[in-house]
């Protein structure tokens, strides 16, 4: 297994935090995690695996990974003769899962690399399982399925918003997630593990993420046309080829991925609706072109009041637009961290104040419901023309969600 070392960052990052939780389960002394956790009590042996909430839709969920190579883009990091190489996952409604195992949140090699900068020898078995059954056949009801693509944040990975991804799949969407190589922790089929490169020379900008997504859209069209884009010609689940609807594609992204969502929509008409999860909207050149298709912003830190780039982007939205914000949310509140870190806190013996520093004051259970309800309502309205009332204004069911004018 080949890995590229992480460069240490000041303080305990969210990646370090999750690593500490998993490591505690391996009976590694918590004191080595740093001064903030030195006084935490020792974890009880054999803690339970971390868990993700089950999706609420009527369908079971299947998933399959794809190994993709973009032959139009040379890879300067890998050297001459190499092209941009990506790992992606396809999530979809499944019709039969009895003989198909659940997919892990991350593969073992990627999980180990994900935890490298914690300094722990960890047990990857504590990582959560998803609700996706690997290779299960696709459920179709005589029509093609709408598609949503996902772009993660800086120094992250394609599993970071699995709660949202599997929720959409359980409601009949095909969701395609991708690791932005060199700005993600990713594991390739041959065992290579690549982690984020943080030097200036190899730093990836939102426009690089958008280029990956536009190639991913090409792969979506390949699948829709009945062709397998996997570079290894890996067998795909029964019913997947020809199941996708290339005329109903949406996109969402977190942080840098939210900015990439805006850039992709400005450059590519194939994306019909976009959702940004606290994207800073800072790009070079700036996002100053008009966008006439539906766009929704779920903000926390990068609000229009605090981020001039977000305010500028908002002013150029000429189609349907909406900006909501949950009280007490922080930058990572609309993702899996809001679920996993509280479980980590119990293992670590963190105080309520320490936990709040990581996830804000938004209740984790409420955050899950927000993650499940609002993206689904947005894509249902703009990809399926199923209009509900959740996006019309403040809801008694979600009193913490504010609609920003």
How would you describe this structure in keywords?
405 residues, alpha/beta, Rossmann fold, 11-stranded mixed beta sheet, two-stranded antiparallel sheet, 9 helices, 26% helix, 21% strand, disordered N terminus
Structure in words:
- With 405 residues, the protein is an alpha/beta fold.
- It has one domain (14-388): Alpha/Beta hydrolase fold, catalytic domain (Rossmann fold, 3-Layer(aba) Sandwich), CATH 3.40.50.1820.
- It contains 9 helices and 13 strands.
- The strands form 2 sheets. An 11-stranded mixed sheet has the order 3-4-1-2-6-5-9-10-11-12-13, sandwiched between helices. Strands 7-8 form a two-stranded antiparallel sheet.
- The longest helix has 20 residues, at 364-383.
- The protein is globular.
- The chain starts with 13 loop residues before the first helix and ends with a strand.
Summed up, what is this model?
This protein is α/β, with parallel strands linked by helices and about 400 residues long. It has helices spanning about 15-25, 110-115, 160-170, 205-225, 255-265, 310-315, 335-350, 350-360, 365-385, and strands at about 60-75, 85-95, 100-105, 130-135, 145-150, 175-180, 185, 195, 245-255, 270-275, 295-300, 320-325, 400-405.
Radius of gyration: 20 Å
Q: In this structure, how is the largest beta sheet organized?
A: 11 strands, mixed
Oligomer: single chain
Q: What is the strand tally?
A: 13
CATH third-tier fold name: Rossmann fold
Main β-sheet, spatial strand arrangement: 3-4-1-2-6-5-9-10-11-12-13
């Amino acid at each position: 297994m080949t890995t590229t070392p992480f460069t240490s960052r000041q303080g305990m990052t969210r990646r370090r935090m999750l690593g500490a939780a998993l490591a505690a389960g391996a009976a590694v002394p918590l004191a080595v995690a740093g001064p903030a956790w030195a006084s935490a009590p020792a974890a009880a042996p054999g803690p339970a695996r971390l868990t993700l909430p089950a999706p609420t839709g009527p369908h079971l969920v299947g998933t399959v990974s794809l190994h993709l190579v973009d032959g139009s883009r040379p890879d300067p990091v890998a050297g001459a003769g190499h092209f941009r190489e990506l790992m992606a996952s396809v999530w979809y409604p499944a019709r039969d899962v009895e003989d198909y195992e659940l997919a892990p949140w991350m593969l073992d090699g990627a999980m180990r690399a994900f935890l490298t900068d914690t300094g722990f020898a960890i047990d990857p078995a504590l990582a959560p399982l998803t609700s996706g059954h690997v290779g299960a056949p696709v459920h179709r009801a005589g029509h093609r399925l709408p598609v949503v693509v996902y772009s993660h944040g800086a120094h992250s990975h394609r599993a970071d918003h699995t709660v949202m991804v599997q929720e959409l799949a359980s409601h009949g969407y095909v969701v395609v997630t991708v690791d932005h190589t060199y700005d993600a922790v990713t594991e390739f089929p041959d065992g290579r593990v690549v982690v984020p490169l943080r030097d200036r020379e190899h730093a990836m900008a939102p426009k690089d993420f958008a280029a990956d997504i536009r190639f991913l859209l090409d792969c979506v069209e390949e699948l829709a046309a009945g062709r397998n884009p996997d570079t290894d010609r890996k067998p795909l689940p029964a019913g997947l080829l020809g199941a996708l609807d290339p005329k109903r594609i949406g996109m969402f992204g977190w942080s840098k991925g939210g900015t990439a969502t805006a850039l992709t929509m400005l450059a590519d008409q194939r994306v019909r609706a976009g959702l940004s999860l606290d994207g800073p909207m800072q790009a070079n050149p700036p996002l100053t072109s008009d966008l006439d298709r539906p766009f929704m912003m779920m903000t926390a830190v990068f609000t229009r009041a605090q981020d001039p780039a977000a305010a500028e982007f908002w002013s150029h939205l000429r189609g349907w637009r909406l900006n909501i914000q949950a009280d007490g949310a922080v930058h990572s509140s609309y993702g899996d961290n809001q679920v996993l870190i509280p479980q980590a806190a119990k293992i670590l013996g963190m105080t309520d104040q320490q936990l709040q520093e990581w996830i804000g004051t938004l209740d984790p259970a409420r955050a899950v419901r927000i993650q499940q309800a609002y993206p689904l309502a947005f894509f249902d309205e703009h990809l399926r023309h199923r209009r509900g009332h959740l996006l019309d204004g403040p809801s008694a069911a979600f009193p913490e969600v504010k609609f920003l004018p």
